[in-house]
Batch of 3 targets.
Target 1
Amino acid sequence: MLFRRFYDDPLAQASYLIGCQATGDAFIVDPNRDADQYIAAAEAERMRIVGIAETHIHADFLSGSRELSARTGARMYLSDTGPSEWRYGFRDDPRAVSLKGGERISVGNIVLEPVPTPGHTPEHLSFFVTDGAASAEPMGLLTGDFVFVGDVGRPDLLEKAVRVQGSSDVAARALFTSLQRFKSLPDHLQVWPAHGAGSACGKGIGAVPQSTVGYEKRVNWALGIVDENEFVRQALDGQPEPPRYFAVMKRLNRDGPPILGRVSMPERIAEGRLPGLIRDGAVIVDTRSAAAFSAGHLPGSLNVPLNRSFATYAGTVLPYDRDIYLIVEGETRGLAETMRQLSSIGLDRVAGYAGPESVKTAEGRVPQIDPAAFACDGRGAFLLDVRGVSEWRSGHIEGATLIPLPELLDRLDEVPADRPIVVQCQSGSRSSIAASVLLANGRRPVANLAGGYSAWIAQGLPGAR
C-alpha cells in the first residue's frame, strides 16, 4: 500500500493519497482545489487516480473533488446521510457515488469502508483503511474532522457560520454518541485527521500529523468525559469565531464547487490606475506587511498581509461578488502564492495586480499608538478590540468594545463615525486588517495600538479580567 499525506499549511488542512502498488490504482481523500499536486504525485508513482472520497461538506476550504474528477475521470464518493438540506447537491453527476455507510470500496488490494460519524457535521463519514495484501483487518481510520490529534471537530459551525438555529446542541450530542463508538475501536488503529494545529475547525488541535485510537483515549479531552451534558458544555465553550467565508464554503461545497481548471495569473496593471479603480469602487488588496501598510498605503485599499493566515483573513474581509486587484511583492513567488491561497477558498475574481512601487507616494497612514501613551491620553477615543471572545475573557483593556474581526463587516454600524478610533488585537496583526477595513468604510481617524494587548500587559498597564 502506498500512503501519502498532503498538507496545506495556511489552511492547516490534510488530504491523503492511498494507492495499491500492485494494480496502480489510487484514491484521494478530502482533496483541496490544487489538483495538480495529486496528479503529479500519482504520475510519479505510476498510479492512476480512480476514486475521490469526501469525509464531509467542508467549511474552511473549497473542495477539489469536482476539479480532480474533471481532470482524471475518477469517481467521487459522497456521503448520502444526514438531513436533506445538508446532502451533496451534485449527487446526480455521472461520476458521483452516494455512500450511506457500511459499503466496501476496493482500490486494488486496498479496502476503504465508510462509517457515519456525525457531530462536526450531520453527514460526516470516516473511512476505515485495510491493506488487503497484509491483513483482513483495518490498519487505520481517516477521521476527517471527527477526531483530531488531541481534539475533536467543533459541533457549532452550522449554527455560527450558516445560522442554523439550535443546531449546535443537537450536533454536540451526536458527536458524543459517535465518540462512544470510537472508544470501542482497537487501540492499535492509526488515526489520520483532516486538520492540524491552527485550523478553525477545532479549538486545540495538536500539531502532530497522526495518532492512534489508544493514544487519543488516553490524552484527548473529549474522550475522557463520560457525562453527555458535560461534554456538550465543554464542546461548545471557547470555540473561536468562524471566519466570515465559512458560510460561502459550506454552500459551495454542498451545491458543487465550480470547476476552475488551471489557475492563470492576472495581468499586471499600470501603477497609476489603482487610485482610479478605488474611486470607482474596486477592491484593492495590499498584501504587504502591516508595518509597510501603516507607513503608507493607497487610501481605500485593504491590508491582508501575505502570511500563513492570509487565506483565513482574506475570506474574512473580501467579497466574493466583486473584482479584486492585488498589490504584491514579487511577481513570481508572491503573486503565485497569493493566487493559490485565494483560489483555495474560491476567491477567483482577481482582475489584475501591481507591485509595491504603486504605493511609494501613497498618502494613507495608520498611526501607531504606544500603549502607555494611550493609557495616559486616550480619552475620547473609541477603543475597538477585534480579538476573539475567548481572548477577551482571558483579559482585556477596561473601556474597550469587543467586535471580533470575523464580525466587523456585519457590525460596522456599532463603530462610531464621529470619534477617533484606536484598534487593538493581541499583537497588532488583526488590528491592522481591521483598521484598513474601517478606513475603507469611511471611519477616520483610525490608529493602531502598537503591539496590541500583549504590549499593554508587558508595559505593566492594568488589564480587566
Target 2
Amino acid sequence: MDDHAAVRAGVEALLAREPDLEALPSVATPNGAIAALKLIAESHTAREIAEILVISEKTVERHRSNILEKLGGRDRVALTRYAIKRGLVEP
C-alpha cells in the first residue's frame, strides 16, 4: 500500500467512526460560512481565512462556532469530517 492509499484508508476509518455525521442533512449556512468551512478543513488559520475571504478573523471564528453548534461538534476535526462527507474537500 502506498502512502496515499494509507492516508486515504486512515481518513475513511476516521469517518466511519462518526455515524452521526452520515445522517446529518446539509447545514443551511451562508455562502461565506461554507467558504470558511472549506478553508478550515484545508487547515488554513483564521488569519489566513480572513485574508482570503476579506473578512475579519472574528467573523471567521463566528462562522466556525455557528457551524459547530449546528453540527453538535466540538472541534476543527468535526468540521473537517463534515466537509469531507459533504464533498467540500478531498480526503
Target 3
Amino acid sequence: MLQPIKGVHNLDENGNPAGGETTGIGIKINWQNGPLGRGEDRKEPNGAFVEGVIAAAIDRLQFYQSTQFACDENATAILKLQEALDACQARTVSREERGVEGTHEV
C-alpha cells in the first residue's frame, strides 16, 4: 500500500511554479519558491528541488542494499531513479545551453 501524500503546489501571478509543500507521514518537503536567477543575480535556494528528493530516495535504497534487505527490486528502483535523475540533469543542461536556466523562461 502506498503512503498517502498530500501536495500543495503554488503558482505565481504569471502561472509559474512558486513553491509549495508535499507532506506524508515522516515527509515534509518545502519546494523551491521562484527561480534562482543567473550570474551575479543568482540566489541561494529556499526550498527543495525534485533532483534532491530523487537523490534522497536513491540514498535510502542504496542503504537498504547494504543490509539484509538487499534485493533485485531495490536494484531496479535505484536504476530507474537514476534514470529519472539523469533526465532532470539533461533538462538542466538543455536550459543552460539555451541560457534560460535559473529563470522562468521556457
